[in-house]
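Troubleshooting entry. Yesterday's outputs looked truncated, so today I'm pasting the complete records for two proteins to confirm everything comes through intact. If either block looks cut off, that's the bug. Protein one:
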Amino acid sequence: MVFKYLTKVVIIIFIFISLILLLSSTAYKLSNAPSQIEGLTTPDSPVIVNKSDAFCETHRGSSGALDESCGKLTNNNCNSTSCCVWTSDEKCHAGGARGPTFNTDSNGKTEVLDYYYFQNKCYGAGCSKVV
């Protein structure tokens, strides 16, 4: 009868020792594993620090949404971006050095602009009249 209990005790002790050895070897491997710190960027997507560039980047591929967002900007903010222009009608629109991206009215008719500003530089025939 004692032999029966002794066998159970030996088996339980063997299981505990096995678990301790297994855990200690795993913990050793984990603690010696090289640490990898995740970065904020990949080589294909750098972090954009400039607010104006970030504004344009968030609208990349969506000209309609960009035009709507540009329309909410003030003159100074509009001129600080690389994707919006301040037009002679005193509004900010999506565009670049060649002018507004969308230059039509609600009927689809092309609007004639005397001038427009892109990054604080005046473009167009009406620039000489602007002070």
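Protein two, checking that the full record survives here as well:
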Amino acid sequence: MKAIRGISFPFRVGSRGGVVMTKVDFIDPTHLAESIQQIVSTQIGERVMEIIGSNISTQIFEPNDESTHTLIKYEIVEAISNYEKRVGVTMADIDLYENEEKVYATINFEVLESGLRASVDTQIGG
């Protein structure tokens, strides 16, 4: 399997003062979960040299109801299917929940190459 090395997400400085780096298999669920978090938490156009992200931030001030949750799930699936081709996610794989007036998502995904299933929790919006 192909291994990749890059800056860990979330970005942090290690105990020796350097940036923490990660080396993982290309289809490692941990790496893919970090990738999904980056895609969902990045607004389209926010990164100048990279075209990744989602339109979820446009839903932040909408009513906290079932129709908004359905739209958020749709935006998550669209963003992941556009920018992370190594995983499969459907709207049924996303659970939204509230905690202290914030909305979070548990995204269950399948690594397409291996069939392995994993999940990632992420905050929606600010």
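Both blocks look complete. Sanity check on protein two: The beta strands are 3-7, 21-25, 87-88, 94-99, 102-111, 117-124.
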